[in-house]
Amino acid sequence: MAETLAEVVASPGNIEEKTNADLESNTTAAAGFAAAATTAAATDDATAREQTDHDPPLSKKALKKRKRWEKALDIKKRRKEQSKAIRFIKAKNEGRDLDAERALQKQNEMEGKGWERREQLWRGRCDKGNIDESFRVCFDCSFEDQMTWKEVNSLSLQLKYAYAMNRKSPMPVHVHVTGLKSGCDTRNHLEKVDGFPDRWVGRAYHVHEGNLEDVFGSALSNVVTSKDDDEDKQVGNEAKSEGKVDSNSCKDGSQQALRPNHQLVYLTGDSENTLLTLDDNTTYIIGGIVDRNRLKRAAIERAEAIGSNSTLPIKTARLPLDEHFDFKGSTRILTCNHVFEILLKYRENGYKDWGVAVMSVLPDRKNVHEKEEQKQQAAEKNEGDKS
After folding, report:
1. What are φ and ψ of residue 180, in 5° steps?
2. Phi/psi class of residue 347: alpha, beta or left (left: φ > 0; alpha: ψ in -120 to 50)?
3. 299-338 pLDDT, tens digit each
4. Is the pTM of this model over 0.85?
5. Among 47-51, 71-75, 120-124, 174-178, which is the least confidently predicted range?
6. Buried-most residue among 79, 195, 360, 361 (CB within 10 A)?
7. Which candidate, 23, 192, 177, 176, places its Cα nearest to that of 96?
8. Helix pair 60-93, 98-111: axis angle to 10 deg
9. Residue 327 in contact with residue 368, Cβ under 8 Å?
10. Which phi and psi (to 5°) does residue 326 adopt?
């Protein structure tokens, strides 16, 4: 059965024909997909105008927006059914027993084997990436009172994206989110996610109700000395070799002391200092701001206020965007999750190439191009490292 996914994707009608032809033994599943794939009628205007007795009448503009929204939902549903059918046909072509796979999956869920496998994968990535010796990232969520409800909702989505990126990264880092007070809108959005915040801690994502000054002021005041650090490592290695320490304890990091001379760097595009590379004994702070470029200089003013009103040794820096890229009039404002992902990608490529890190993260709509001289310098540096 020479089946190609290109032929399957060609049209919903093509999917229907191939599904009925190839899956005669499973007529129920094929008939169900055919019914879903052929349902492509446009949303009826009467449905869009249905109103309850208690709802106020909608304007023409609101009715058009609702119609577009319902049409988008219908397209999304049909695409989901199409993708499901493609996977079904592909599995049949490969000779897989789907019923047996589903039964095995259900059994593994009941026995907890899926959780054990995910834990092993996570611990392996943490060990390979040496997470406890890497830099840290902190999201400073102290700007909520200056943002609209829609902007706060966008911030919560960006924090979830950052969690997902870090969890899947081959070289994850410890992430701290400060200022998420109980009852605040950002936290209320995140608490709708299953497992927040308790299970997120197990993936090196630490949520604090206290503000940035309190959390890191306390952490830096408890910094261990070099001698104490060496003794702790020796005791820890002995305990681990004797099997007395849970291997996951070093991945939590919530109670792990910072190393001596630990630095804090607040990332903001308004800083005069350019970030040339990343230091593993530093926490890089990202301002939790979604303002559509409305709150100008909010991040750098926040950093300067912390430096003047507390004992925290905080500095400021900006990503080397202007030095490496030509934005051609596009905005240099990046979302919180984009900044975080750039830091992750830069670490994954060995702290060598900002160009690769940034270009792999920024969306195509920004129309950003790396400067030729920077490409040449990066190529020469890579050749030198190989030799």
Report:
1. -90, 80
2. alpha
3. 999 999 988 877 788 999 999 988 888 877 677 788 999 9
4. no
5. 47-51
6. 361
7. 23
8. 100
9. yes
10. -110, 110
